[in-house]
Amino acid sequence: MSGASERILRIRSAIAIAAMLAAWEIVGRFELIANGAFPAPTAILSGLWADSDLYWRHISASVRSASLGFVIGNVIAVLMAVLFVQFPATERLMSGINITLFAMPLIAVVPVLVLAFDGSTPQVVLAAVAVYYPTMSSMLLGLRNVDDRLVDAIRGFGGGSLAILRRVRLRAALPALTIGLRTAAPAAVLGSLLAEFGSGSRWGLGTFLLGSLGAGDPARLWGIGLVATGIAGVGYGVFALVAKVTTRQVASETLATSPVPASGSREEHPVTRFLYALASLIVALGAWQLLLAVIDLNPILTRSPVGVVRFLFTEDGSGEARARLVTALGETLPAVFWGLAAGLVAAFVFAVVLTLLPSVGRSVLPFALISQTMPLVAFTPLIALVFGRGAWTTIVVTISVTFFPSFVTIAQGLAMTPRRAVDVVQIYGGSKLTVLRLVSVPSAVPYLLAAARLAAPRALLGVMVAEWLATGRGLGNLLNESRGRLDFGMIWSVAAVSVVVAIALYRVFVAIDQMVMKRYLGG
Amino acid sequence: MEYTDRRTFLKTIAMGGVGAFLMAACGDSSSSSPTASSASSGSTSSAAEMRQLAFQAAWINDAEFIGYFIGIDNGYYSDEGLEIDYLSGGPDVIPESSLLSGRAPIALTTPDTTIKAISEDGAKLKIIGTQFQKNPIGVVSLVESGINSPQDLVGKTLAVPPVNTLSVEAMFRLNDIDPADVNIVPYQFDPTPLIKREIDASLDFTVNVPFSIREAGEEATSFLLYDYGFTTYNDTVVVTEEALNERRDDLVKFLRASRRGWNENFQDLDKYPAMFGSTWFSGTGRSVANETFYNNAAKDLIDHPNGVYTMTEEDIAANLEALASIGINGDRDMFDTTLLEEI
């Protein structure tokens, strides 16, 4: 793109953003939406100004635990990625734990963390958990994607795998790592805020939100939401800058969130594969058991894997417990499905619009970026203010968490439309729309599926947070209710079941993906 | 706290040693509530004499716990030789779990969960006093809707937090009302639906939410579940049996100093909410006016002619009866009133 048209695009984007802000101001001033649930930007700003002392203390507490968790989680993630690339078998053994950390709804872990740790440790641990997967997967991809010729050269000079790691892989992984860190930064903020909200720690934006919820002051809720988004956005921006320096490949945009396919050759014997899968399951359950031994709590508070199975199947009252869990699942799963579908459709439509009308796409992009970085827990109450406490809120929350990663993935697919296929259509006089219909959309389908795979676990998290904070239904509510009823068996069961559901959702889309790909490639 | 070292050590191992130094740095400043330690550091000259006592509250700082803040700031606990490690609560904090995990030997709980933990899970806990003689939970509505008793709810929509559904249904049965005649919907502790008249009434803390409703320009009325047969305490003071055996003296001292704090508060209900606005209540997202309202409304539910925390035999029996009606079966042995006699 030439410098002049780039400048025109920028001006247009600025005008569009200014227009949106002006419209928001008018809507807020005259309380046009939901009786003033949408306060004017100036009202939010004056609230921020009035409470600025408080905000600083809350911000510094949140930033402190988020950064501590960010550092710890990333150090572990980098070390694990190195371990996996040096000893590929370890990755396959750890795959059960990795996929759990990828898919696990953070909200389900908070009650368990608060049981095990005190002070600000739950915030730090949750932030660390939230950053582990994006960083580990990016780093691993970076370590693997190396120039074979360099590897051969080192081997030729008698270097072993350590020399290859040091001289080739670590250097090659740097750009991918920074992209992983970019995704991890907002995740750390979300982790910290969620745990603050649950543990009611003295300072932190999550706590501020908790205390402000019942006060009926929409401007305050918006202030907290925007500040939290700002912090997450700064984290994202800093590492985006670093990433720009370390890499010039725009194509690696989605590296950070793409699950890494497990290593291991395709021709492997099915029995070996099965044994590896079994071993990774055992390792994951063993880690659970080990964690219980390490935190060493009164057995009334904890449940081992066997304990959860007993609670749901053999103990007294297991029938009733199962029934409650199944009812909750029956409320949660349809919401996940519809929210996910809506988020994917929105992302697909938006990606298509972007290819046809780049200037429109550009002006909306900042808002899409906000939806990516905004901490879920801070925005759900705002969405509830505007959309009420029913199914709409759940759907909107779910769209907001699934939209952006899906959009990035799909847009990338559309951008990689083979040039020659486009030329063929255009030679025969096809319009832009015909190109879209015959070439772009079909070639974006695999990316749509990849997006679904990534977004499904996020959709579950979105639905559970909405259920907890707004609608009072489903798994999110059952978790909250079990806490209130001191039902430790149910707390652990909901946590375990939600992880299993998230992994199952992910697996379903992986399977569909493989089926479709086989058709594409085999047909 | 003798177990702390071991737990900290194990947690460090849990982090794989990678972030060990970071964990240590983080554990440092989080181990105690900053305000509590700074407030009590005024008298650190005799710190060697002070015995640490961790106290788990039930929610984030608000007027519900003002008696303890007064006790800490006015030195009532240090007069007894105690240094309070005040732990605030939150949605995911289960006070009983702080007791069972050894984080605190004394906590404020709801009697239903504590008795359930003792009777069903075999938790070794004892109730040694109660902050609220009458549970402040009740049915809140706008004055215009004329809901002043359970009978008035027939045919109306009542929002109930899922945790309290059983208690509300028990209250209806005690008043010969079929729960099916009331439209019960889930409630999330937000007065907005009531103000917007999406619901007719909600179950909430009667000492708190009417303030938010008034701020929104409406006038609220309420009645307590307690006054219609669901006779339970709230913020029961619960200790571990271990603490009862080994630190009985400290527990009595805690009750004495805390009662002193509450009595001081009752002298002038407007004084301390304003005074704590920039310390204990700072940054909680709630206004001083809100805390003042709460403090005034809560006094009659807390105070007792025999002194704050009193548990009479009749009231204990009434609690057990009410809880039995929702399937929670406790007995007199779960209460220990002898510490109150020593205050």
Would you write up a description of this structure?
The complex is a heterodimer of chains A (523) and B (343). With 523 residues, chain A is mainly alpha-helical. Chain A folds into two domains: 35-260, Orthogonal Bundle (MetI-like fold), CATH 1.10.3720; 307-523, MetI-like fold (Orthogonal Bundle), CATH 1.10.3720.10. Chain A contains 20 helices and no strands. The longest helix of chain A is centred in the C-terminal third of the chain and has 40 residues, at 432-471. Chain A is globular, with a radius of gyration of 24 Å. The two termini of chain A are 37 Å apart. With 343 residues, chain B is an alpha/beta fold. Chain B has 16 helices and ten strands. A five-stranded mixed beta sheet of chain B has the order 2-1-3-10-4, with helices on both faces. In chain B, strands 7-6-8-5-9 form a five-stranded mixed beta sheet, covered by helices on one side. In chain B, strand 6 (157-160), helix 8 (165-174) and strand 7 form a beta-alpha-beta unit. The longest helix of chain B has 20 residues, at 248-267. Classes of the chains: A mainly alpha (523), B alpha/beta (343). At the A-B interface, helix 3, helix 5, helix 6, helix 8 and helix 9 of A face helix 1, helix 2, helix 6, helix 7 and helix 9 of B.
